[in-house]
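JOB MANIFEST
job_type = single_chain_structure
chain_count = 1
residues = 791
[input]
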Amino acid sequence: MTTPTYTLYPVLPLRGTVVFPGMTLPLRVGRPQSMAALKAAKERPWALVLTQKNDPADTEPGVDDMYRVGTLVKIEKVRGNDKSGYQVLARGVARFRVRTLRKNGAYLEAEGEALADNRDVDAKTNEALLDSLKTAAKEILKLVPADTDQFVELLDGINDLELLTHLSAGNIDIPLEQKQEILETVSTKNRVLKLLDLMMALKENLEVQGQIRDKLTHKLGKNQRENILREQLRQIQEELGESDEEGGNDDFRKKINDAGMPEEAKKVALEEFKRLEAIGKASPESHVIRNYLDLLCAMPWSKSSSSDIDLDAARKILDEDHYGLDKIKKRILQHLAVMKLKKEGRGTILLFVGPPGVGKTSLGQSIARALGRKFARASLGGVRDDAEIRGHRRTYIGAMPGRIIQSIKRAGENNPVLMLDEIDKLGASFQGDPAAALLEVLDPEQNANFMDHYLDVPFDLSKVVFVATANSLDNIPGPLRDRMEIIELTGYTTAEKLHIAKRHLVPKQLKEHGIEENQLTISDEALLRLIAHYTREAGVRELQRKLAEVARANTEKVIAGTAVRVEARDLEEILGPERFVHEVVEGIVPPGVVTGLAWTPVGGDILFIEAELMPGNGKLTITGQLGDVMKESAQIALSLVRSRMASVVPNFDFAKNDLHLHVPAGAIPKDGPSAGVTMLTALASLFSGRRVASTLAMTGEITLRGAVLPVGGIKEKVIAAHRAGIKKVLLPKRNEKDLRDVPEEVRSQLQFEFMETAADVLKAALGLSFEPALRAYVDENPQAPASAASA
């Protein structure tokens, strides 16, 4: 085709399009200015010049708003009218440089000439650039998400470098400014090189987009597949009548309305329900909201047991479940009577303190039976995180409510008997102090609006009957202890253990081993020997294990159809040799050995104080892993004996002898203010050479002036003395009132003597007169102060 000879052409302003020579593209002409240019172009065979506007947003461009290099095109087809606009098919012929642009009536008119290419490439360069363009174009076509086979064939058929450059530049997705720059470049080589740079950048961009698209497609495909499978599962369940409880949001609305929540909790639940509907099932947060709504709907906001309390039935239940413990039962019945009069669940919180195996947990179960309420138990042993009490906040992964709310949820009632087991085993760490978190739970003035962090709405705990257990009060903080009424459970006597074994433990073990009562019986003598020589504990837990061992040992005989009766002589064959022997009543102890009484967290126990002299220079050695208090008691006892040595052993030179004081079982730490009189008696026995009766035991503390101070744990110590075969017990005078707590059957079998001074102790234990060393001086010097010789 020959280049047109005309130099004056109508101008059709383009917006968002650059036309290159050799390209054919459809154009829509609708603006008055463009339609006037099109009509003027019909009068000329080469029609018009297409050129870009500087500002694509300008709808009515002027003379100064156009680029000066455009494309001369030939109009191939025209369709349409002035009313609806025209559809024009135009083919680019050559680049056109505009020298003058002026307005001709309603349209723009350009005067200029065709812009010829500067073909500055030789044959080899032309071939190399042509191959590079084809390769780059094919690589780009591979990255386009469409069928491009026809374009690849078209590329293979083009061997004209200029045409391929124009077609590539016109069809790749690059900014219009860069397309205009390529159009204005006269040098063929420079034009191709610029285009290759742009195509390589486009290729890298398409590669990244392809990777992102593949990942997104995979993710969307997986989610879509899961949604389809879930919908199919829901349809199958509906057909089978096994609709998922979580399947419909309408179920949640019904649950919320039926849960009986207070207004505040219901408002929160409905807000969360709206969020659940808004985010949809596909959101990861929906699982968190569903769990929270499940908890809110499952809480027993308005469900409670009958509040009618029958005191006679409660007394009968307590007597059936527990033998003895009369004082404890009386206090529990008083507690229930107060609840009956107040007609509400709130009352004093009971704390059962005692050694293992004395029935603390079972007392809580009996209270629940007596009240006709559910029993729930929350074990607090080893808890070091206050979130275990108050719950975790829902913002954390794996959050859950605290043990209090979980226990009430499991009980299914808002007024259960909730036992806080092992409350003295709470710990504290960097995660918080759970004992402090319990202050709100156990305060009747605060727990009506208890706020669990996970639940995040108040829950009324005032109807819950709280019962706590502990082995010792030492590890319970004062503020927490102040919120509870302490009820101490001490150990059982031998007679009580016998009754408990016959009424409760033996039938329980027979049932657990599948043995009928007439198939295996245990004589009273065997039970007494089992209690006395195979166990030594305050409770009955070890006794229960031994009875289980006896039952297991006779299961083969029971299966054979033989009725078995276990006698005392059979125990050694079943359980082995006796573990505990009462050595205090079996021999004559040497001087310097005295039996003392001690209190331990698992009940009372006996301990021996041993003293021995050896040549030396007056040094005192103390062994047995004693604490500071007992070491001080030993020093006081020695000073007291040395100050009154004349009344014990005249002319004894302590400076030439060393003294060793030992408390056996050295692997066990021992401490407490109750061994002073025992150490004093041991030293006096050693120095005087007099023996202390093996059936005599004592407890009490002394001062440097010889006064005997009262001590605690009298009931446990006296029961331990009775259990060990002691016949006579020396106690401080001020502890005489504490014998009222000791069972009558124990008191009746022991002889008690009460002490006020150190002289009373040694007179009762050794028959010694223990006078101060200054007594003779006062007798000879009446002017001396009488306090110098006071005992």
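[summary]
Residues 784-791 have pLDDT under 50 and may be disordered.
Residues 188-240 form the longest helix (53 residues).
exit_status = 0
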